[in-house]
Specification:
The complex is a heterodimer of chains A (118) and B (448). A five-stranded parallel β-sheet of chain A has the order 2-1-3-4-5, with helices on both faces. With 118 residues, chain A is an alpha/beta fold. Helices cover 37% and strands 19% of the residues of chain A. Chain A has a single domain, classed as Response regulator (Rossmann fold, 3-Layer(aba) Sandwich). Chain A is globular. Chain B has three domains: 203 residues, GAF domain (Beta-Lactamase, 2-Layer Sandwich); 60 residues, Helix Hairpins (Orthogonal Bundle); 150 residues, Histidine kinase-like ATPase, C-terminal domain (Heat Shock Protein 90). In chain B, the strands form two sheets. In chain B, strands 7, 8, 9, 10, 11, 12 and 13 form a seven-stranded mixed β-sheet that branches. Chain B has a six-stranded antiparallel β-sheet with strand order 3-2-1-6-5-4. In chain B, helix 1 runs parallel beside helix 7 and helix 7 runs antiparallel to helix 8. The longest helix of chain B has 63 residues. Chain B starts with 17 loop residues before the first helix and ends in a 5-residue tail after the last strand. The relative contact order of chain B is 0.07. Classes of the chains: A alpha/beta (118), B alpha+beta (448). At the A-B interface, helix 1 of A face helix 7 and helix 8 of B.
């Protein structure tokens, strides 16, 4: 079973993603901030990371920069409510940029593509 | 030994060169909080007043888009009117400000009666067959016209209007762009325009061109700043609204896909209800923040307000396992603020301090006077403190460390402080808590 790290500070959204992605057959580990995400990345293996950008404390961009320093091999999806960050140069470091939507189709398809499950 | 001089040059004696007088007049007007129209009027006044160059009349054209439009005309319309004005203006003790004031009225009168005719003096700058006066702007050259009535290059509408045989056209340029044009003449005295008049007038034109350029640039910057703030605000609002909407949509979809599970139904409806409440809170806070407008600053007694805040139920509720220590100096001066916004600002800071302080933590609120006519209110928490990066983000719009925060609280406090002429400062170090210092303008109680 592929293991996904979800970094999302909105509790209800993280629950929604966790449940919906579990239905797709993924194991989803949820953390609510960037520091906890870094701890998880150091101690566990993940096949993919999904992160929000705006979070309390360090933001998603800082998280990507830290992950890139140690684990360049893990694909990263930015899943954010902000459309305007798309041009931010650090978001290029992510493998995909998705604007949050109540339909999770784009997210699910992107995960499949990045995990080469198509 | 030192000698001090007033920033604005005082009156000059009759021997002072005209260039210097002229520069001084214009520089002084730019120093004043005059409107754009008034400053342009000053330039026209400098061209027409006895202490300036002394032309009889001056007409200002401004470039709008690709057109040159007559905007202002200063000068008497008959020898009698001229005599009356010059007699008045030569009265002893009359300062430059009075001359400008007089000219403002004169222009207002002229414009009222001549507006329809002035409107006709409107030339497309890209026209290949431009006539004078617009030709000077089009060619970016100063043009002196003599024997205008027999000159085919002069626009007849213009000539019918000004009724003068000789006039000088001064293009107003900046960075090689056409800002406008000034046309001057001696219609009343009929004194020929000489080389020195042209040199002095070109100096005025140079200043006017650059002044208009700078003013236009300033307007653009203000507009761009507004747009940038609007863009940031729009991005933030869409972000804030999108999160709960995505949750509502997602959990609704789950219900539609799997309507039979009553536990799941109940849980999802609960989440949807919470998210709707969150949306309502966002809308309330946004409208509250956006409408902040202080109508009148009044002297405010901080004592009852600060004491009242500490006793507020919402604050008391948060202080069950924390202590708030309030100390106010004896007989504090009154601060200049809006009492309602003052209370909200303090509640905001105290609420933050309580949120970041751990159980058993202490929050200090102090009011003291460190400088005459100022009062300082200090709020210190026992939270984790902030590093330099955290401090930088603190007043960024929409930055928050709270789960349901909007990141508008501190911005609100900052705006309140700015609106009442005060200042806010933050001191913080990781592990040492954070201190907010609010500096308010103050006045002694005896003054009331």
């Amino acid at each position: 079973m592929k293991k996904i790290l979800l970094v999302e500070d909105e509790k209800s959204l993280s629950l929604l993603y966790q449940e919906e992605l579990a239905k797709e057959g993924y194991q989803v580990i949820v953390v609510y901030d960037a520091d906890s995400a870094m701890e998880k990345v150091r101690s566990e293996e993940f096949d993919l990371i999904i992160t929000d950008i705006r979070m309390p404390g360090k933001d998603g961009i800082e998280l990507i920069a830290s992950i890139m320093g140690s684990r360049k091999d893990i694909p990263i999806i930015i899943n954010t409510a902000y459309q305007s960050y798309k041009d931010d140069f650090m978001t290029w470091a992510a493998d995909a940029y998705i604007t949050k939507s109540s339909s999770l189709d784009e997210l699910k398809q992107t995960i499949k593509k990045l995990l080469k499950e198509n | 030994m030192i000698e001090s001089y007033h920033l604005q040059p005082l009156n000059f004696n009759p021997e002072t060169p005209k260039e210097l007088v002229l520069l001084s007049i214009i520089a002084q007007s730019f120093f004043q909080p005059f409107s754009v129209e008034d400053n342009l009027l000053v330039i026209l006044t400098a061209l027409t007043s006895g202490t300036g160059i002394g032309f009889n009349r001056a007409m200002l054209f401004l470039s709008e888009g690709e057109r040159l439009k007559a905007t202002m005309w200063l000068g008497p319309r008959s020898p009698e009117e001229a005599q009356a004005i010059w007699t008045m203006l030569s009265s002893p003790g009359l300062g430059y400000a009075e001359v400008v004031e007089h000219n403002r009225e004169l222009i207002a009168r002229t414009m009222e009666s001549l507006k329809p005719q002035l409107k006709l003096l409107n030339y497309p700058l890209e026209d290949d067959n431009l006539l004078l006066p617009a030709l000077a702007a089009g060619k970016k050259e100063i043009i002196l016209v003599k024997e205008a009535f027999s000159e085919p290059l002069v626009d007849r509408h213009f000539l019918d209007f000004v009724q003068v045989d000789s006039f000088l056209c001064l293009p107003l340029l900046a960075h090689n762009e056409i800002m406008g044009e000034i046309v001057v003449d001696n219609a009343i005295t009929r004194v020929p325009i000489n080389q020195r008049d042209i040199e002095l007038a070109s100096l005025c034109a140079l200043l006017a061109g650059n002044y208009i350029y700078t003013t236009n640039l300033y307007k653009k910057v203000v507009e761009m700043e507004k747009m940038a703030a609007l863009g940031e605000m729009a991005a933030f609002i869409s972000h804030q609204l999108r999160n709960p909407i995505v949750a509502i949509g997602g959990f609704t979809q789950q219900l539609l896909n799997n309507p039979c599970n009553p536990d799941r139904c109940h849980r999802n409806l609960g989440i949807i209800q919470e998210e709707i409440k969150h949306l309502e809170a966002i809308i309330y806070q946004l409208s509250h923040f956006l409408k902040i407008k202080i109508k009148e600053l009044v002297p405010v007694d901080i004592q009852p307000i600060l004491k009242g805040i500490v006793e507020r139920p919402d604050i008391k509720n948060k202080t069950q396992d924390k202590t708030v220590s309030l100390r106010i100096m004896d007989n504090p001066p009154l601060i200049i603020c809006d009492p309602v916004y003052f209370e909200e600002a303090i509640v905001n800071l105290l609420d933050n301090a309580l949120d970041v302080s751990p159980a058993g933590g202490k929050i200090y609120v102090r009011a003291c006077q460190t400088r005459k006519n100022w009062l300082t209110i200090l709020i210190k928490d026992s939270g984790p403190g902030l590093d330099e990066k955290g401090k930088e983000k603190l007043f960024s719009p929409f930055y928050t460390t709270k789960e349901n925060g909007l990141g508008l609280g501190l911005l609100f406090v900052k705006r309140v402080m700015e609106m009442c002429g005060g200042k806010i400062e933050v001191q913080s170090k990781p592990g040492h808590g954070t201190i907010f210092k609010l500096y308010f303008k103050a006045q002694e109680r005896s003054g009331i």
